[in-house]
Amino acid sequence: MIEDKSVVKVGMADLNIAHLPGVIRTTGLGSCVGLTMYDPHLKLAGMAHVMLPSSEIAREGKLNTAKYADTALPELLEKMIKLGASHSRIVSKMAGGSQMFAFAGAGDTMRIGPRNADSCREWLQKLNIPLLAEDTGGNYGRTIEMDCETGLLTIRSVQMGVKEL
Amino acid sequence: MEMFNRFEVFQMDVLKEVGNIGAGNAATALSQLLNRPIDMGVPKVQMLPFEEVAEKVGGDERIVVTVFLRVEGEAPGNLFFMMTPEAAKMLLNRLAGFDLREGLAFTDMEQSALSEIGNILAGSYLSSLADFTKLSMYPTVPGLAIDMAGAILSYGLLQFGEMGDAALLIDTSFFEGEDQVEGQFFLIPDPPSFAKIFESLGVPLSHD
């Protein structure tokens, strides 16, 4: 178990970084995407809980960069690099982006999960970070946790049990 | 998000009344279905940071049975009807004579029955609200989920997400004493809907 390790929690529309010997986790991912960046040499793990695909629609005064895929990914990368991570070593995994409620003729809002995942993939490509594995889509919620020691991403869900990436 | 920080006390009271009327009618409908009295809590209206929203139902990972309806019309929003799995089973047993079984598994028939019950209750919530405000509001086809509260409720926060990191919830709970059939309604109006609701009820907006 993880009792002896410090747990860094990432809230909704939030991002953070965990050092060895810690784990970083975010709970209750529905349409949101939990995106991780990991430097295996430094054993540094970053995670963003992305809520919306693009900041273009933002109408808020002060932009919360962790909320949108197009701003959260560059910000997380920058933070990792500031802490000594090397851009060329950083790899990514992600989970979430589900469509909890399927409606006939559902509009864009209901498809927000797949759109979040698409946007994350697109930005990983733009930032030249390889996506090693993902567990996205479906119609169920997920809680994810990454161990800095191994870079393993553990995904728990009510319906599908536990999965490791 | 600034407009919400400027809600006055009497405006919050109006929103409480909105919850009161909606959930009151839903509780009456449930009471008629069950043929026994249903009690209702005092509605709570709160502006909550996203990470605290799921705390209202016991945490992000707490498993809940939820019927979700997207509300369309003049004052769009999201309506959630949430129960614990135990309460949902009790309700199914009381209403439709389903066997009481332990665990999280719900058969297709049970899920369909829950959807329908949620639909009836949410429908009475909305129609009383529409009568009260004289605004057209109609529900979409209900969606049912048995999953983590955080994952489910996040759907109600998307419209707020574009504006800030907090959402306004109108939260009303009801319960039936002996068997603890209890449930919670969350109405999360889209941000532009507040002005419409206030206007239709003759409540002046604070920035007039």
Strand order of the largest sheet of chain A: 1-3-8-9-10
Helices and strands of chain B, in order, run as: HHEEHEEHHEEHHEEH
Shape of chain B: globular
Work out the strand percent of chain A.
25-35%
Proportion of residues in β-strands of chain B: 25-35%
The count of strands of chain B amounts to 8
Which structural category fits the helices and strands of chain B? Answer: alpha+beta
Distance between the termini of chain B: 17 Å
What would the keywords be for this entry?
heterodimer, A: 165 residues, alpha+beta, five-stranded mixed beta sheet, B: 208 residues, eight-stranded antiparallel beta sheet, 26% strand
Word description of this protein:
The complex is a heterodimer of chains A (165) and B (208). Helices cover 18% and strands 35% of the residues of chain A. By secondary structure, chain A is an alpha+beta fold. The model of chain A has no long low-confidence stretch (mean pLDDT 89). Chain B is α+β, with helices and mostly antiparallel strands. In chain B, 43% of the residues lie in helices and 26% in strands. Chain B is built from eight helices and eight strands. The mean pLDDT of chain B is 83. The chains are: A alpha+beta (165), B alpha+beta (208). Chain A binds chain B through residues 11-14, 27-32, 51-52, 57-61, 64, 67, 98, 100-104, 109-110, 112, 139-143, 157-159, and chain B through 1-2, 50-51, 54, 59-61, 63, 68, 70, 104, 140-141, 143, 145-155, 157-159, 161-165.
What does this entry show, briefly?
The complex is a heterodimer of chains A (165) and B (208). Helices cover 18% and strands 35% of the residues of chain A.
What is this structure's SSE topology?
The complex is a heterodimer of chains A (165) and B (208).
Chain A: E1 6-9, E2 15-18, E3 22-29, E4 33-39, E5 44-50, H1 69-82, E6 91-96, H2 112-126, E7 131-136, E8 142-147, E9 153-157, E10 161-164
Parallel strand pairs in A: 1-3, 6-7
Antiparallel strand pairs in A: 2-5, 3-8, 4-5, 4-6, 8-9, 9-10
Chain B: H1 2-5, H2 9-34, E1 39-40, E2 44-49, H3 50-53, E3 63-73, E4 77-83, H4 85-96, H5 108-133, E5 137-139, E6 143-148, H6 149-153, H7 158-161, E7 166-176, E8 181-189, H8 193-200
Antiparallel strand pairs in B: 1-7, 2-7, 3-4, 3-5, 3-6, 4-8, 7-8
